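All the exercises in this workshop are built on plain-text protein records. The record below serves as our worked example for the rest of this section.
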Amino acid sequence: MIASNCTRPETEFVEETAVTAGGESATDRPPGTRYSYLIALLGRLEGQVTIDRVTDAVHEWEHEHTESASDRTWFDIHEELYLVDLPVLDRAGIVSFDTGRGIVSKSE
């Protein structure tokens, strides 16, 4: 498991890091952030999964590994995944995120 704080880089940095062809990629970033955990989790996807399942996993990880998690509800995490994280990862080609159905899968 990855442990540390739940800080997340700014969206522009994440998109740039996620699409880097050589050198450091999003999956090569140092472990410890919630965002690193999310990318590792999504990298292990087999088939399709709902955003609710992804939210459950991130919520559990935050509560086990971060001090600031007590202020964040499941809904807060879901909203951030839906509005920010998954669309960024979708644009970067890491996952495919169907916003209408709330389905996440690995990009082809």
